[in-house]
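User: quick one, fold this
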Amino acid sequence: MKRRTAAILLLAFALASCSPSPTGEATPTSASETSSPKETSSPAAGSVVGTVVRFSAGSVSLDVTIGEDNPATRDFLSMLPLTVTMKEFAGREKIADLPRPLHYEGSPGSDPEDGDLIYFVPWKNLGFYYNASGIEFSDQTIHLGRYNATLEELARFEGQEVRVEVSR
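Assistant:
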């Protein structure tokens, strides 16, 4: 009986060390990544909501405030810092391909609005909606955060290498 209890405790400890941090802190996936858990968690312990992610290209920058605490958002934060290239899509959004798909299972879908940063599951990319009229709820559109920028400000990022990192 003692041996079985010890085995169960050992298994539980091993599983706990492989799962995401219970405090909601993102963990870098390689030594080359410089974001730290302290940088990716907001003041509300255990939540990434309120984390500010800065997209910058040259002297232009855009801050996105994380508004959801879900698996996709946590995985996105764990990838930072990274560099993406933004492009126009369909007169509705600026999009950027990620270096790998996000782990999104368990993340709720959304009904996007202008000013939303989303992850679009089928294309595995980010989308900055600026004209979401007529777009309805989809479980394939995962809400990550909110930004405040005009179409002209967003256009300055097109075709540029854009640095993405936690700002605060």
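User: anything notable?
Assistant: The chain has one domain: 36-166.
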